[in-house]
Amino acid sequence: MIKYAEIINEETGLCRVSIGDNEQFYLSIGMSKYDVEQSEVDNNWYLTTKCPHYTQEELTEKEAERVSMLNLTAADVERALYKAKGMDFEDIVSLIQTQQLEGLDIKALKIELKANNFYRGNPYISQVGALLGITETQLNEFFETNDYTKLLSDENSEQ
After folding, report:
1. Which of 57, 43, 64, 49 is nearest to 121 (CA)?
2. Best CA proximity match to 93, nearest among 75, 81, 76
3. Residue 73 sits in which domain range?
4. Are residues 129 and 70 in the same domain?
5. Do residue 140 and residue 116 come from a single domain?
6. What number of H helices and E strands is found in the chain?
7. CA-CA-CA-CA dihedral for 60, 124, 89, 102, to nearest 10
8. Rounded-to-integer distance, Cα 70 and Cα 140, Å
């Protein structure tokens, strides 16, 4: 994007940018037209050719962090599970006790089920989801939207 800018650091391409159409004014204060962009890394302006960007790995990591912090209330989660799977928290605990699942601490899960907020990054969310046939993608979409239909399996959602 072409804007009036003054290069602050030739090596990094860091610029001070102004927006406007009074060319004479900007030229009088030492600015010139440059192709610049704002970096998502630090929100500073740079010459487009030197602008720092996150790597794909960093973007993936940042997205995973964002998703893990999505949260819903316990009521949101229990209501959605009831609508999508016909089960409330007590039913889920009973199912887990009946199946005697390895690696799932039932007492710790009961404590988690009493929490006010459920965070997507909590490993119990994925464990219980897998037990109920809910995929990671479905869980992510549910936590993004609070739409219980995201928890329905494909054959159930067509009904």
Report:
1. 64
2. 81
3. 61-157
4. yes
5. yes
6. 8, 6
7. 140
8. 9
Tokens encoding 145: 């939207």
As beta bridge partners, residue 47 has 36
- Residue 107, classed as helix, strand or coil, is helix
Could you tell me how many residues make up the chain?
159
Task: State the Cα–Cα distance between residues 156 and 135, nearest whole angstrom.
Answer: 14
56 located within any domain: no
How does pLDDT run along the chain (159 residues), one tens digit per residue? 689 999 999 999 999 999 888 889 999 999 999 999 999 999 999 999 999 999 999 999 999 999 999 999 999 999 999 999 999 999 999 988 888 767 788 899 999 999 999 999 999 999 999 999 999 999 999 999 999 999 997 654 444
- Distance (Å, rounded) from C-alpha 158 to C-alpha 141? 17
Are 28 and 85 contained in the same domain? no
Measured CA to CA, the distance from residue 17 to residue 32 in angstroms comes to 10
CB atoms closer than 10 angstroms to residue 138: 20
Kindly give, in sequence order, each residue whose CB lies less than 8 Å from that of residue 77, ignoring residues fewer than 6 positions away.
118
